[in-house]
Specification:
Length: 85
């Protein structure tokens, strides 16, 4: 499966905008209208970069590093930052 940087950005955005600190894989999948296995794969890639953490099976949160990353320099796109880390 190919990595989709735009999907990774969208997932981070969903986690940041969520009113709840913990979000399920299926909830993210439904909100983005993307199949759950694809979302799960990209969450795992984000976890590899310490941007998200799976607190229990299928329940994700944005890490402190993830908040710093998403709320970083406004003129630098997340896609550029994701590919350079």
């Amino acid at each position: 499966m190919k990595r989709d940087m735009m999907l990774m950005e969208a997932i981070l955005g969903q986690l940041l905008q969520s009113p709840e600190p913990l979000v399920t894989t299926s909830s993210i999948s439904q909100r983005l209208n993307v199949e759950t296995p694809i979302v799960r794969h990209h969450l795992n890639l984000l976890q590899d970069k310490n941007l998200v953490e799976e607190s229990e099976s299928g329940v994700w949160r944005l890490t402190n590093h993830g908040h710093d990353y998403v709320e970083g320099t406004p003129d630098q796109s997340m896609a550029l930052k994701l590919s350079s880390q």
